[in-house]
Structures are given as C-alpha cells and as structure tokens.
Automatic annotation (TrEMBL):
It is a multi-pass membrane protein. The chain crosses the membrane at residues 15-33, 45-62, 136-159, 199-222. It holds the Pfam family DHHC. Keywords: Acyltransferase, Lipoprotein, Membrane, Palmitate, Transferase, Transmembrane, Transmembrane helix. The keyword Membrane applies. PROSITE patterns: DHHC. This is Palmitoyltransferase. It comes from Cudoniella acicularis. It comes from the Eukaryota. One of its GO terms (biological process) is protein targeting to membrane. Residues 340-356 have a biased composition (Polar residues).
Length: 356
C-alpha cells in the first residue's frame, strides 16, 4: 500500500487520465442514444465533430514531447530564451540531470526530466505542459469547454422542446408561471428524460470550471508568464514587500560568459536589469554580481520588467507557433555562415603567414 501510494502521488500514471476519458465517454454514451433522434442534421454533424476533438487533442497533449531537455538538444534549448537575471540566472545546474538549466526550464519531479518552459505537470494528460505541447493543452481545454457548453445547450433545448409539446404556451423564461410551477415543469422534464437531464446538469456545473481554467491560462499568456513562473513572481512579491529586493542596470554591450550562457538567443530582447535579494535588507556588497551602477530598492513587481512579455499577440504566437521557427533557422544559418567565414578567413591568414 505504501509503494502504491508513493507511485500514485509521485510518479507518472494514467489513473486520472483514464478517469477523464471515462467521464467523457460515459456521459456521451448516456446522452447520445436518447438525444440523437431528436437532433437535426446540422446538430448531429456539430456534435460528432465536437465529441472527437477533445480526444484528438488529449492524445496530442499526452503523447507529444513537452520539451524534454537532453544532452543532445541541450545547446538548442539554451538558445530558446535569454536569462532575465531575476527569476532565471545563468550557471544554475539541475541537481538531478546534472546539466545547466536553460532559462524558463524546470525539473519535473514526476516526469523525472527537465522540461523547457515548464508550465505545470497535468495529471489529466499524464504529461507535463511545456514548450512542446502547451498549444495542444490549450486546444484540449478549449474544445472540452466548447463540447460541455454545447451539450448543455442541446440538453436544455431538447428538454424545452419536449415541455413545449405538452405546454404549447411554454417559453424558456416561463412567462405566465410562478416559480413553483416553473421548477415543477423542469423537474417533470428531468424525470421523463433522466439520461439527457442528468448529463445536461453535469455539463452545466462543470463548464464554468473548464472555461475558468482556460481563462486563467490565457491570462498567463497575456502576462507573458507560466504557472511555474507565476509562483516565482509571487515569492519575489513577498521579498519586495519586505524590502529585501534590489535591482540595477545591465549594460547592453556586456560580454557574456558563453560557458554558462548562450552567445545569442532567438528571443528579440535581452535583460536590461538584474534583481537580487539580501538577507539583511541592505544593498548587496559582494563582488562579481552582474550589472553596473547603484543598487535601487524594489518595492513592487511593476517596478521590474518581465523579459518574457512581448505583448499578448506575440506571447500567443510564442505558444501556438514554435515560433519564430523560420527566423530561428535563418538566424542560425547566418551565424553558421559567419562562423565559417571567420574560420576561412583565419585559415587564409594563417596560410599567408606561413608562405611569407
């Protein structure tokens, strides 16, 4: 029992994902057979499409690479995002994977892997949500919420039509009926069409939860952050409120230590500040901290730039289009060409000197 509990709590397992699939499947089995004859052709087509899409994106979310960082792809992962010198600093090593942690990455204790741009580990897809599959996860949420909402609409529409057959003057608003009569009529409909009514009520109650989760993730996109990063920002907010956070400028022409930080990234901007905390609430006095100028105490998050916020639409592109992908390839080819040019020039110069 102890081993089973440890596995269920700390390791990857499909129990919750199976529960999610069964919840969707059983609800569809309950409502579709009695409701199908009562639907017109357009509603039938719409229903079939909406029932298939959540399974498609569940499969895509669960089976796609969320952004596993391996020794082979580590150099590429390092170039995806620059360090912001606030919540992500260069030179930090994962104690489990023993690799330098790229900016915006995190080690997942359940997957036992480092994940690029980790948002969170989702038990409903039995996978992490990260750089490689965040768009699939958002589409899963969107189409699941749409399916549930459409099922609620169809269910109440069918029940209302059946009520109308017995009460020709019936309307959705129940005009002409007192509240007790109105609820008695709906109670009769739910009793006569138990399967349709039960699934409709279930969908009515769960739709706001799914839409709320989707709305929260779009808020994170708007803010240019992830669930993991939002928790780090919350920690910084506490430090700032206590007066333990300081910042100063980083020169744009600084020389990077390329042993722990990539020489260039595909991200269009670089950090212009470094933010640190102190134990005593006094400005840092230790040597070797990047940046120039006097330290300035920071009291609120709005006084600190979020390097990864490019605006809502660019943030959205960064999620749904691994993005700037063409730009990145072109830039990498240009960098390779420049390096080859330098190598050829150096070789020519060396040959010339030897001839001389």
């Amino acid at each position: 029992m102890s081993r089973l509990a440890h596995t269920l709590w700390n390791d990857k397992h499909p129990v919750i994902m199976i529960f999610f699939i069964l919840l969707l499947g059983i609800a569809e089995i309950l409502i579709v057979p009695p409701a199908w004859p009562l639907l017109n052709d357009s509603r039938k087509v719409t229903s079939v499409i909406l029932m298939l899409l959540p399974y498609i994106f569940l499969y895509a979310s669960a089976n796609s690479d969320p952004g596993y960082i391996t020794p082979e792809n580590h150099p590429h992962q390092m170039t995806l995002y620059p360090y912001d010198f606030t919540i992500f600093h260069p030179g930090q090593e994962c104690r489990t994977c023993h690799i330098l942690k790229p900016a915006r990455s995190k080690h997942c204790s359940i997957c036992k892997r480092c994940i690029s741009k980790l948002d969170h580990h989702c038990i409903f897809i039995n996978n992490c949500v990260g750089y490689g599959n965040q768009h699939y996860f958002l589409l899963l949420l969107f189409f699941t919420a749409t399916l549930i909402t459409y099922a609620t609409y169809i269910g109440f529409s069918i029940l209302s039509n059946e009520i109308f057959k017995h009460l020709p003057n019936w309307t959705w608003r129940g005009k002409g009926y007192v509240w007790s009569q109105y609820f008695n009529i709906w109670a009769w409909a739910l009793q006569e069409y138990t399967r349709i009514g039960g699934v409709t009520l279930l969908c009515l109650l769960t739709a706001p939860l799914v839409w709320g989760l989707l709305g929260y993730h779009f808020y994170l996109i708007w803010a240019g952050t992830t669930t993991n990063e939002s928790m780090k920002w919350s920690d910084w907010a506490i430090e700032m409120a206590d007066g333990y956070a300081f910042k100063r400028a980083i020169p744009s022409n600084r020389q990077k230590d390329t042993t722990i930080e990539p020489a260039w990234t595909r991200w269009p901007v670089e950090s212009e500040q470094v933010v640190v905390r102190t134990e005593d609430g006094l400005p840092p006095i230790r040597e070797g901290v990047v940046g120039v100028g006097e330290w300035e105490r920071v009291w609120k998050l709005r006084d600190v730039e979020n390097l990864y916020d490019l605006g809502f639409w660019d943030n959205l592109k960064d999620v749904f289009w691994p993005r700037y992908g063409v730009w990145h390839k072109k830039e990498r080819k240009a960098e390779d060409a420049r390096n080859n040019g330098r190598s050829n020039a150096d070789s020519s110069a060396t040959s010339s000197l030897r001839r001389k």
